[in-house]
TrEMBL record:
Organism: Flavobacterium croceum DSM 17960
Keywords attached to this entry: Signal
Keyword Signal found: yes
Listed InterPro entries: PorZ_N, Quino_amine_DH_bsu, Secre_tail, WD40/YVTN_repeat-like_dom_sf
Family matches, as SUPFAM superfamilies: Calcium-dependent phosphotriesterase, NHL repeat, YVTN repeat-like/Quinoprotein amine dehydrogenase
Name of this protein: Uncharacterized protein
Domain Secretion system C-terminal sorting residues, every copy: 706-786
Length: 788
């Protein structure tokens, strides 16, 4: 076999095809085409999705046949310590785990069992396929809130699954669920945290009903009368080790169980969070300690978090080949040889700081991410344990994910929106819903603007609470000056000049009780009109300093909004303002600001099943983004994301966690790479991207390219003609000049499905692509090689 460069192959292919068309020898044609197919050894893939998950927080670890597999919140990874290969398994691989709570590796069948908090059982096979087993979710008649899977235990070709209601059995011979055991008092549910077998008994550690056991050989384990309580109390775990049963009680003491009695072995100074054994060791994990005992219950290894410079917090531990693997909350897996605590290494794939990415922004060099969650109802940063002090992330293909830790961002808290300078996206601002406004110059944080450094009329903290400055949305005007909002203040609109001078604008003329109002988003249109989304009672506010004019778009006769609480704003390529509220969508022509004192928004009426209805009627819209073809990506609360046509009349895609690699239907933010068309979705359970085709239009036709090229028989996607000018005319003909496709570009890319105007797939051959700009002056020609 020999290999040739892809570009060289294309040139050779074109010359060979000319030879094919010139000869009348059918057998020779067939032979040459086969040669072309055989020589094309480079790969063409149709992988449209990519995951960008965090692997810092380890939920469980397991022995993977001499290696170690680790589970994060919603993904797996493992490292082959012989080859040093680091492999991830995510939603893009069909692995949709959501919140993982336990894993187990079955070595004979080479299966990874994964359980989550809802009772979903995922089985990852050696060939990469994933089986979803919904038996617990769909068939166990208990409330969904108590279906969490806590532990797997294999015995006699069965997997015993500890859950928050009892025990479920999974049969390895049939790969299906079997019996369910409720062993609480009077057959009630009880939370089982761990299972062990020491013949002739099976043991269950329960949260409130002690250690319970039954004869493992019994055919009636689904009868609660078969289960006896050995010890009362809250037990955190139970194991079978060296022909004995050991447990951890509520006082964090390890006990040896002997029928109805127990003997305390040792008591741990911290809460025990993981208790397990291998063939040779008992392992106990607390937040700051790992203890390892040998078969004689002698302590042979004790590691404290303070022995590592990063002082990690521990979650779980296992031992493989005399190496200790400790799961941590922020650093992945910490590996330590059992006999040498000084040799320490963190193992984790490169990824963002957290899975719950709050806001993203794609610049030319980096993808930026923040994690500053606030209350989705009233934008209060004192939410979910906040206001949070999280770092920021930047990502590039060259360097991967890099962390900007708290000192680098001046210890700003609750970081939110990233607003790029359209003239130089290396300079930008980041809002903080607690600390003010952070300025970046050349991708480096330079100053945090707050009430101490913004002149004689400084940024105003909340009028009801003077220790916070809540900045969210913002935008640059045509002069390069930056406008932004501060919530719960009278002077809630601010302009920061290029020279650093700050001016604050009193919103009282256009906003009802501005000291009670918050602003989820803000945009500046091509006329320098500022559009503010509000959440309380003011709908959308428009302001232009040129004539000091305010316009409000509200419900009813004051603007036709479906609801006052507006969350999303987007300005499309026709300067239309798309408004997303918590109860629907509206569109406004922004030029109406200058001609109308009361702007009326319009709904989009579509036909569905022959019935006229409003697009996204009564839906909670969380974000709207416009791609290079003027199409709209619209995310809905707990309903995934839609791509609709420029006018909203047609739905192109509807992605959910069930039909796509989206890890969650709750999308916090969307952003688009205008050059490549890649669309990024930041969800509360991870960041993924879809390789879209709508790119920003180019200024000329100098860099037009076609991909994939050549098109091989197994390729099932569309051919893309990219780097076009807007409204460029694209015609594709066969080698004899017969037209097979024609379109006009919207943005920088068009797609061809390799059919003759949609009627049939075109034959093998060379196809000519004739491209002309809208004015007809600039033209270019490309070629596509198709092999069927």
């Amino acid at each position: 076999m020999f290999f040739i460069h892809e570009k060289s192959f294309i040139y050779v292919s074109l010359y060979l095809y000319k030879f094919i068309t010139a000869t009348q020898n059918k057998m020779l044609k067939k032979t040459v085409l086969l040669l072309l197919f055989s020589c094309a050894t480079f790969a063409q893939t149709n992988q449209l999705w990519q995951s960008y998950f965090s692997y810092n927080n380890i939920k469980d670890v397991a022995n993977l046949g001499g290696n170690v597999v680790a589970a994060t919140e919603n993904a797996l990874f493992y490292k082959n310590f012989i080859t040093n290969e680091l492999k991830t398994i995510t939603t893009v691989d069909g692995f949709k785990a959501e919140n993982i709570t336990a894993i187990y590796y079955q070595p004979t069948l080479k299966l990874i069992f994964v359980g989550n908090e809802k009772g979903m059982l995922l089985i990852h096979k050696a060939d990469g396929t994933v089986l979803q087993k919904r038996g617990i979710i769909d068939e166990v008649p208990v409330p969904p809130s108590i279906k969490q899977i806590n532990h797997f235990y294999e015995y006699n070709n069965k997997i015993y699954i500890a859950t928050n209601y009892g025990i479920s059995v999974f049969k390895l011979d049939t790969m299906e669920f079997g019996e369910t055991y409720y062993m609480g008092p009077n057959g009630n549910t009880t939370k089982v945290l761990q299972i062990a077998v020491k013949e002739p008994y099976i043991y269950a550690a329960t949260e409130y009903n002690g250690i319970r056991r039954a004869l493992i050989s019994s055919q009636f384990l689904d009868d609660y009368n078969q289960w006896n309580q050995l010890l009362g109390d809250y037990f955190k775990g139970v194991i079978s080790f060296a022909n004995e049963i050991y447990c951890i009680n509520s006082s964090n003491a390890m006990e040896r169980v002997n029928n109805m009695t127990n003997t305390v072995i040792t008591t741990f100074p911290e809460n025990v969070i993981d208790f397990r054994n291998t063939e040779d060791y008992v392992i106990v994990t607390t937040q700051n300690h790992v203890y390892v005992y040998n078969t004689s219950l002698v302590l042979v290894f004790h590691f404290q978090s303070t022995q590592n410079p990063k002082n990690p917090k521990f979650t779980c531990t296992t031992i493989v080949n005399n190496t200790v693997y400790i799961g941590t909350t922020t650093q992945g897996i910490l590996t330590i040889p059992l006999n040498n605590s000084s040799q320490q290494e963190f193992v984790l794939p490169n990824g963002p700081f957290r899975n719950s990415v709050f806001r993203i922004k794609k610049a030319s060099k980096y993808l930026w991410a923040t994690y500053g969650t606030y209350d989705p109802v009233d934008y209060n940063p004192y939410y979910d344990g906040g206001p949070h002090s999280y770092p920021m992330n930047k990502y590039s293909k060259e360097a991967g994910w890099e962390l900007l830790d708290l000192p680098e961002i001046f210890n700003a808290r609750c970081m939110t929106r990233i607003i790029l300078n359209p003239k130089n996206d290396n300079d930008f601002f980041v809002g903080s819903s607690f600390s003010g406004l952070l300025k970046f110059v050349n991708n480096t944080p330079t100053i945090l603007y707050d009430d101490t450094n913004t002149g004689s009329d400084p940024l105003q903290p909340l009028e009801s609470n003077g220790d916070q400055i809540r900045v969210n949305g913002g935008g640059y005007d045509s002069n390069g000056d930056f406008w932004f909002t501060t919530s719960l203040t009278t002077k809630g609109l601010n302009i920061l000049k290029k020279n650093g001078q700050l001016t604050r604008i009193d919103l009282t003329p256009g906003v009802s009780e501005p000291y009670y109002e918050q602003y989820p988003n803000m945009l500046v249109d091509k006329n320098n009109t500022k559009w503010l989304a509000s959440y309380r009672s003011n709908g959308v506010i428009g302001y232009n300093e040129k004539n000091n004019k305010f316009v409000s778009i509200k419900m009813g006769t004051e603007g036709n909004l479906p609801f006052q609480d507006t969350r999303a704003l987007a300005i499309d390529n026709k300067n239309q303002l798309w408004i997303g509220t918590i109860r629907g969508l509206r569109v406004v022509q922004t030029d109406a600001f200058f001609s109308d004192d009361q702007i009326q928004s319009k709904s989009i009426i579509i036909l569905e099943n022959g019935q006229a209805q409003e697009l996204f009627y009564d839906q909670f819209i969380t974000d709207i983004e416009v791609d290079g073809a003027n199409r709209k990506w619209v995310s809905l609360a707990d309903a995934g994301v839609y791509l609709v046509s420029p006018d909203g009349q047609n739905t192109i895609y509807h992605f959910t966690k069930d039909n796509s690699p989206l890890p969650s239907n709750n999308i916090n933010d969307i952003d688009i790479d205008g050059v490549t068309g890649e669309v990024f979705f930041a969800t509360d359970k991870g960041l993924v991207s879809f390789k879209g085709t709508a790119t920003k239009a180019s200024d000329n036709l100098n860099n037009v390219f076609v991909y994939p090229n050549p098109v091989r028989p197994e390729f099932t996607g569309t051919v893309k003609i990219a780097a076009l000018t807007n409204k460029a005319n694209v015609k594709i003909t066969d080698i004899e000049g017969n037209l097979v496709f024609e379109t006009t570009s919207e943005g920088g890319t068009v797609e061809w499905d390799t059919t003759a105007f949609g009627s049939y797939k075109v034959a093998s051959g060379v196809y000519m692509v004739f491209i002309s700009a809208e004015d007809g002056i600039e033209t270019t020609v490309k070629k596509i090689m198709i092999v069927r």
